[in-house]
Write a structure and sequence with these properties.
The protein has helices spanning about 30-40, 65-75, 80-90, 95-100, 105-110, 115-135, 145-160, 165-175, 180-190, and strands at about 5-10, 15-20, 25-30, 45-50, 55-60. It is of the alpha+beta class. It has three domains: about 5-60, Nucleic acid-binding proteins (OB fold (Dihydrolipoamide Acetyltransferase, E2P)), CATH 2.40.50.140; about 65-135, 5' to 3' exonuclease, C-terminal subdomain (DNA polymerase, domain 1, Orthogonal Bundle), CATH 1.10.150.20; about 145-190, Orthogonal Bundle (Helicase, Ruva Protein, domain 3), CATH 1.10.8. About 30% of the residues are buried.
């Protein structure tokens, strides 16, 4: 199996990459988060998951091993295939998915295109224990402050603000103990 590609970026689109490794161009499907993270550098490293089906051999690529790990967890859930998992990872970053699973936030998971109520509940039931074992950044994303941060970000995105701009605005005003309302009001002043 191909676990990573380290080579020259030949082509970059929001849904895929072509990476030249030793004269062979690999077509890799990616999420929007990976698309944003890779940038336009010439030499890149992409962590991959190879899926072999009867009719195709597909490579799915990720900028970070954490995103690949979340992808592997998601495709282990009955009813979620690789394409649906990529849509989930394009809609939310792995930390947000893990936070929603831990908080049993069916609405957040269900808000992703192609995920219904039953599938969202199945994701929570199947993956809740596994999310505790994932190694996120040094801070624990499940504390109340980050839950407030996530809730404020979700609210701003649902109001129509750009996700990245909303994250930056929340980060500018976040000192540590703000409520969801304080985060939203402060971010709205910046946006």
């Amino acid at each position: 199996m191909i676990a990573q590609l380290n080579g020259r970026l030949i082509e970059k689109n929001p849904t895929n990459l072509v990476v030249d490794c030793g004269g062979v161009g690999y077509f890799v499907k990616i999420s929007l988060n990976t698309f944003s993270a890779i940038g336009s550098t010439e030499n890149i490293k992409v962590y991959t998951k190879m899926i072999v089906r009867e009719d195709a051999q597909l490579l799915y690529g990720f900028a970070e091993t954490l995103e690949r790990e979340m992808f592997n967890h998601l495709i282990s859930v009955s009813g979620i295939g690789p394409n649906t998992a990529m849509i989930m990872l394009s809609s939310l970053v792995p930390e947000e998915i893990a936070n929603a699973i831990q908080a049993e936030d069916v609405k957040t998971i269900q808000s992703i295109k192609g995920i219904g109520a039953k599938t969202a509940q199945r994701v929570i039931i199947d993956l809740k224990d596994k999310m505790l074992k994932m190694a996120f950044s040094s801070e624990n994303i499940f504390n109340s402050n980050n839950t407030n941060h996530f809730d404020a970000l979700t609210a701003l995105v649902s109001l129509g603000f750009d996700k990245k701009a909303a994250e930056k605005a929340i980060d500018k005003i976040s000192i540590g103990e703000e409520s969801v309302e304080q985060l939203i009001k402060g971010a709205l002043k910046i946006l």
